[in-house]
Structure formats: structure tokens, C-alpha cells
């Protein structure tokens, strides 16, 4: 079979491999869709300290059961989690599976979904990490349940709810999912901000925010622009929730300044490892009673609920899938993602 393997930064190869065999307690699936995201682009460029090469990449996985274990039958349509909590540590026992210190990941510690066949590790099944895809939901849509699960975790932590004015900074696939999810959670108004006018326009045409805010050029000088515009849009109050869906310290600093009193700020996107320090006016946090929250992936339960949100139509994703590529073109797919020219690129092995 064909797989896409990471060998070293800049070196992902599409090559032949033996079909994997499911061991006891494991499930073998025929991968139908494995979608790509910014993480894949990051891995291609820099590698990742959890990946010991060679490793089949791909973590947004949907497919069909071929053979395996109790409770599953050949032909079952399934979606698979990416982040695997251990299920037994102190955090997991407290239900905080997204911050399990023993977390492992598909496509990092285990071979992932850029392959015709993939084995679902017993560890995934042990934490209910395999979800049945409801009827009427395609494999490509189901593969988007994983990023949506992460977005759901972020909005739960930031308590996005009824009547909130929400700002989403960054109009990539994650930003688009944030806009849609915020709407489904009852947000009053959702504003989408990006520094890239072309990308913002394309995203806004799809997810229709109440306003698309062009944050000016990435170069210094116009940094205040997005803040001013959001304040104007919110009658000077600021936004109840600001979510940064971009790896940008400047966006995080702006987020703090455009939040309303008692606002919640989600640092959803992480910053580059070598440049993670931002300037934060502590008095802004103090007097305005701001809450700053992080977000680290998703739990198995988030994945199950994300799939329900897609299936029930609360968060449509089909129109966000702009590119479908066969496995041999996976590198083109990752390239399209890193250039920001797509919303969602899915690989069909
Ligand atoms: Zn991803
Ligand atoms: Zn754990």
C-alpha cells in the first residue's frame, strides 16, 4: 500500500509499505479521508519532538473498519481521535483529558492516516476514541470532527455562550470553525479578523461573520487597527470573547486590548517555540476582570460531540472542504495549506 512518511524536516515521502496487521484489541481500518492542517505544515518544516521517524503522518482520520476487535464489524464507518489521553493519571481521572501529561498522538507516536490502511491502537479504543459516523455524514466531513473537537474545547474553556460578542482572530480553517461554532452556541455577533485580506475575504464569503475586520499589514504600525475597529463595532465595549486562531503574539496582545470587561480571551493557537513571550498589561486583566484561557487539543468526548454537531447540522463543514487530493499528492496538499490558499484540504488515500 501507499503511505506518506515523515523522515526528517523537509523530507516527507510517499512510498510503498506493507499493510499493517491489527494485533489483539486493535482495529484495522481502510482510511477514506485524512485531512491536513497547519500542524502538518509545521511538522514538514520543523519536525516534532514526539515524532521518531520514519512515521506515517496524518491525524484527522475517518475510514471503514476492515477487521479487528469486539464490538466492531467490517464496514463500520468510523472517525478516530488524534490526541490519546492515558485515561488513568490524576488529570484523566478528574476528567481533564486534554491536559493528560502522558498524552500521545496518532501520526506522532503511532502511524497515522496518510495511508490506505491504518491500525487503531488499543489505547485509542480504551478511551472510547473511535466514533461511529452517523448516516448522511461523509468521510471527509467526519475527518473534520477532530479539529472541530479542539475548537469545541477552546470555546467551552472560554465559555462562549448566548448573547456574546465574539472576535475570532485568524481566518484559516480553525478560525472558520470557531465562527460557525460560536454561532451555534448562541453568540450575538461574531467578527472575523485577519491580516491577510485575500484569505479574510474568502473565509468571510463562506462563514459570513457580522463583520470582516482587516487587521492591516503584518508589519508594525497598524497593530492598533484591529483593536480600534472591534471597539467601534462593539460600541466601545469590546468583545465578550476574543479567540486567537493564529500563531501570532501580536494577535494575542491585541486580543487583550479588545476584550470587554469580564471578557474571556482564548489563546487558542500556540506561538512558535522559540518566540513565546508576549507583553501583557496586568492591570488590564486586574481591573477589567479578564480571564485568559489556553486550549490543548481535545478529549475523546469532544470528538464524539463534534461529530454530532456536524451530523445535526449545527456546524456544517462540507463547504469548508475546498480541496480533495489523492495520497500521492499529499505534499501539494500540505503546501497549499502552508500558503493559506485553502480552507480545508483532505487526502483520500
Ligand atoms: Zn490537525
Ligand atoms: Zn492521563
Describe the overall structure.
This protein is α/β, with parallel strands linked by helices. Helices cover about 30% and strands about 25% of the residues. The chain has 12 helices and 18 strands. Strands 3, 5, 6, 9, 10, 17 and 18 form a 7-stranded mixed beta sheet that branches. β1 and β2 form a beta hairpin. α5 packs across α6, α6 runs parallel beside α7 and α8 runs parallel beside α9. One zinc ion (ZN) binds next to α2.
- Annotation, overall tally of beta strands: 18
Which small molecules are bound? zinc ion
The end-to-end distance, rounded to whole angstroms, is: 10 Å
Oligomer: single chain
Question: Which strand-content bin applies to the residues?
Answer: 25-35%
Helix and strand sequence: EEEHEEEEHEEHEHHEHEHEHEHEHEHEHE
Query: Which structural class fits the helix and strand makeup?
Result: alpha/beta
Mean pLDDT: 95
Any low-confidence stretches, pLDDT <50, length ≥5?
Answer: 219-223
What is the secondary structure topology, with strand pairs?
Blueprint: E1 2-8, E2 11-16, E3 27-36, H1 38-46, E4 55-56, E5 60-67, E6 77-80, E7 83-84, H2 90-93, E8 104-105, E9 117-120, H3 122-126, E10 130-132, H4 139-143, H5 145-157, E11 165-169, H6 173-184, E12 189-194, H7 197-207, E13 211-214, H8 223-233, E14 239-244, H9 249-257, E15 259-266, H10 282-288, E16 291-293, H11 300-311, E17 321-326, H12 330-338, E18 344-348
Parallel strand pairs: 11-12, 11-14, 12-13, 14-15, 15-16, 17-18
Antiparallel strand pairs: 1-2, 1-4, 3-5, 3-9, 3-18, 5-6, 6-10, 7-8
Helix pairs in contact: 1-12, 5-6, 5-11, 6-7, 8-9
Residues 85-86, 89, 91-92, 100, 102 line the site of one zinc ion (ZN).
Amino acid at each position: 500500500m501507499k503511505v506518506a512518511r515523515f523522515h526528517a524536516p523537509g523530507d516527507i515521502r510517499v512510498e510503498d509499505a506493507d499493510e499493517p496487521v491489527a494485533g489483539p484489541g486493535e482495529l484495522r481500518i481502510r482510511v477514506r479521508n485524512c485531512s491536513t492542517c497547519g500542524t502538518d505544515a509545521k511538522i514538514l518544516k520543523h519536525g516534532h519532538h514526539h515524532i521518531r521517524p520514519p512515521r506515517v503522518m496524518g491525524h484527522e482520520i475517518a475510514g471503514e473498519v476492515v477487521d479487528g476487535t469486539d464490538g466492531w464489524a467490517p464496514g463500520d464507518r468510523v472517525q478516530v481521535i488524534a490526541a490519546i489521553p492515558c485515561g488513568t493519571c490524576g488529570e484523566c481521572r478528574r476528567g481533564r483529558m486534554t491536559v493528560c501529561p502522558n498524552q500521545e498522538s496518532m501520526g506522532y507516536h503511532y502511524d497515522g492516516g496518510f495511508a490506505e490502511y491504518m491500525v487503531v491502537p488499543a489505547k485509542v479504543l480504551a478511551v472510547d476514541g473511535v466514533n461511529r459516523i452517523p448516516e448522511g455524514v461523509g468521510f471527509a466531513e467526519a475527518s473534520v470532527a477532530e479539529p472541530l473537537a479542539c475548537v469545541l474545547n477552546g470555546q467551552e474553556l472560554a465559555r462562549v455562550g448566548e448573547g456574546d460578542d465574539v472576535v475570532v482572530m485568524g481566518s484559516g480553517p480553525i478560525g472558520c470553525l470557531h465562527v460557525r461554532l460560536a454561532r451555534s452556541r448562541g453568540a450575538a455577533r461574531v467578527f472575523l479578523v485577519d491580516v491577510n485580506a485575500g484569505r479574510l475575504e474568502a473565509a468571510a464569503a463562506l462563514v459570513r461573520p457580522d463583520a470582516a475586520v482587516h487587521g492591516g499589514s503584518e508589519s508594525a504600525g497598524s497593530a492598533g487597527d484591529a483593536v480600534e475597529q472591534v471597539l467601534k463595532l462593539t460600541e466601545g465595549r469590546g468583545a465578550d470573547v476574543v479567540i486567537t486562531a493564529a500563531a501570532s503574539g501580536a494577535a494575542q496582545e491585541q486580543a487583550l486590548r479588545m476584550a470587554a470587561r469580564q471578557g474571556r480571551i482564548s489563546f487558542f493557537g500556540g506561538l512558535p517555540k522559540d518566540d513565546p513571550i508576549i507583553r501583557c498589561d496586568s492591570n488590564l486583566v486586574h481591573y477589567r476582570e479578564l480571564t485568559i484561557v489556553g486550549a490543548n487539543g481535545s478529549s475523546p468526548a469532544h470528538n464524539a460531540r463534534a461529530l454530532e454537531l456536524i451530523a445535526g447540522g449545527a456546524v456544517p463543514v462540507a463547504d469548508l472542504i475546498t480541496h480533495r487530493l489523492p495520497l500521492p499528492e499529499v505534499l501539494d496538499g500540505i503546501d497549499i495549506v502552508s500558503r493559506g490558499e485553502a480552507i480545508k484540504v483532505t487526502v483520500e488515500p
